[in-house]
């Protein structure tokens, strides 16, 4: 999979831009604050309809403009045109000028694997950050996953509202609650199974990748879920047993909305025992594992984006990472330090100098 031509209108600091990327390596360089990350953010937004920065949609639109449009010709089995338009009223996605009715049906069309320094939050921050990241990763591989997750969240909201009603009004009948619980379990099991399946696939690949970068250390990911290893009938029973707790809290205290996964090195949580360099390399190893899984599942390589890869890593680790990049994978690398790029990549790469909203092919 390759982005051949990218067109931007009123995106962040780019009023109008057209860029033709190379099929393998693309180096986007320049000083900080010039728009390097904005450029690769547009690719990510086109693929997933939202920013990896956690930004609200309105900040993607250039000041004093009514809309932003991101458009790209993408080589898959054939060349397809993708277009995403963002306005104050919402988003419109088109494939080959045909409007896609639901964004959830659009999202898995373009495969993008991104590494950004903020991805360290996956290890350092709360379980909700990890779940959000994993949801994005799985959505690229399974178009139905977001539908299951959306249905689960809808039922969860209804169950929580009814728990509050029961508590306030002193209702004792659980017939409606039991119906909601059965539906919650039905969708939750599907979400849990897919999360476990993907993380099992990651664990099959991540150790050798991590060792290629670091040289030592046994990296694994431990999945933690209330649903793991349990059948629907057992889960429904567990919800019944926890009813008093749920009524006291006014919300559902068990379920896949509390799932977590932990990066472990040599049997210890990387969050507590690993250096920042180890954590960063663990995330990179995870991303490269996803590339391999995507290729196995989809039959083609995704697009790889490495944003500010070289901050806080030594030269040896940088080049160990660059050696992992398959030339069949279209890769976009942003950096302020182009001199650190391995010659094998630099000699084959298209180079783009970014300067305050302008892009010059060098």
Total of DSSP H or I helical runs spanning 4+ residues? 12
Q: What percentage of residues falls in helices of 4 or more residues?
A: 40-55%
Helix/strand-derived class?
Answer: alpha/beta
Mean pLDDT: 92
CATH superfamily of the largest domain: RecF/RecN/SMC, N-terminal domain
Q: Compute the CA-based radius of gyration.
A: 22 Å
H/E series: EEEHEEEEHEHHHHEHHEEHHEHEHEE
Low-confidence stretches: none
Task: Calculate the terminal CA-CA distance, rounded to whole Å.
Answer: 24 Å
**Number of spatially distinct domains:** 2
CATH architecture of the largest domain: Up-down Bundle
- State the name of the first-level CATH class of the largest domain: Mainly Alpha
- In total, the number of strands is 15
Plain-language structure description:
With 362 residues, the chain is of the alpha/beta class. It folds into two domains: 1-111 and 302-362, Rossmann fold (3-Layer(aba) Sandwich), CATH 3.40.50; 120-298, RecF/RecN/SMC, N-terminal domain (Glutathione S-transferase Yfyf (Class Pi), Chain A, domain 2). The chain is built from twelve helices and 15 strands. The strands form three sheets. The protein has a six-stranded antiparallel sheet with strand order 2-1-4-5-6-7, with helices on one face. Strands 8-12-13-3-14-15 form a six-stranded mixed sheet, sandwiched between helices. Strands 9-10-11 form a three-stranded antiparallel sheet. Strand 14 and strand 15 (358-361) form a beta hairpin. Helix 5 (145-169) packs across helix 6 (175-214). The longest helix has 40 residues, at 175-214.
